[in-house]
Amino acid sequence: MKKQQRCRDGYCRMQQTFPATVILVFSLFCSASCHDNTMPSLHLNSMLTCRLVGGLTREQRAVCHEAPDAAAIAFEGLDLAVRECQHQFRWHRWNCSSLLGKSSNPHASGIMKRGFRETAFLYALASAGVAHAVARACAQGRLLSCGCDLLGYRTSHDTKGKVRPNKWEWSGCSHNLAFGLAFSHRFLDAREAADDLQSKINVHNNQAGRAILASHMEVRCKCHGLSGSCQVRTCWRATPDFRVVASTIKRRYRNALIVAQEELNNGLSVLRGRPRGRRRSKARPASKTSLLFLEKSPSFCDADPRADSPGTSGRVCRTGRASRAGACATLCCGRGHALLRRSSLKPCNCTFHWCCRVDCDRCRDDKLNPGHVGPRLPRRRLRDAVLLPRPRAAAPLESQAMQLHVSLVLSGGL
């Protein structure tokens, strides 16, 4: 009986401790899963932060454990870069939609392991995003390892244009760009430990993104004085809006250079490249802000897991001239598209009654919205899909409820 009693007591003890264990495990699981593939926040401890983010190398995890607060800010910078990538490429065949599908780290994506022109854009944008986020976090007091930029801001000319090299005009908290650039170099360039061609290109594109960010630093000032006069000014250096940096990197993407492999065999330390489509032109040294890529990009029309391309099927395109961004002629890849008519009820024929009432009718507003990329259609059906009747004029309706319906206008249907 004693043995059975001990077993029963042990079982009772297990019942008492088991719910506490379940609650602990559930809280950890919820804190990890409730983010829904978003970047870890600062309240997570260093071990959990570094373990949640996939695609990190051993060197990056070491940096993450040494500086968990700065690493958490770096993950926010990566998230900022991904969202900005989706904006910049929203009308391209490849629109960055797959970067947050598997992991919150864009470097875990398959396209980051290739040498495409889009890969060069991503490396530069991610590097600039990390430096941008860390530099701002230093000035905001979110990091213990850094603060405001100690150099501050120094003016070299007065209001009349006279040089005054020894006069300081500042007292604002400048964004610590130097620390942001240094941590971006330490955290992202640690991935490229190998001494191969692709690693050299990735490091160059990382440096290009940081150089573009540094070239767009702004000086912001605030005036102090009576009646709004500017007798005393407080100035500081600040990182620009990240969209400005991303737009500049997008322009560098359009003029990216393909690496001349025959030049690399000579053991040169400076990478050389030539513009796209000019194979016979002489390779020139790549500047600090130019992007480099190694292989030609695919069409991104069809789904390709190796290139991390979901394809363009189901995307919304824009009707009009073919040169327009997001034009159906470009996004559809010759497969045709279906025009959608969207009808909505809007107030019309409004009358004002004194006082104070406005009575309106409900009128139907028909619009032809951008086309929807569909499967490949025969030529005859494509012609029928383009020849659509004009929308009907607005007509009053008796119903007062707003309705929205979408009708697929295509001869024979899809």
From TrEMBL:
InterPro entries: Wnt (IPR005817), Wnt_C (IPR043158), Wnt_CS (IPR018161). Gene3D superfamilies: 3.30.2460.20. The keyword Magnesium does not apply. It is found in: Secreted, Extracellular space, Extracellular matrix. The keyword Cell wall biogenesis/degradation does not apply. Its main location: secreted. Keywords: Developmental protein, Disulfide bond, Extracellular matrix, Lipoprotein, Secreted, Signal, Wnt signaling pathway. Residues 1-34 form the signal peptide. PANTHER family: PROTEIN WNT (PTHR12027:SF98), WNT RELATED (PTHR12027). Ligand for members of the frizzled family of seven transmembrane receptors. Belongs to the Wnt family. This is Protein Wnt. It comes from Plutella xylostella.
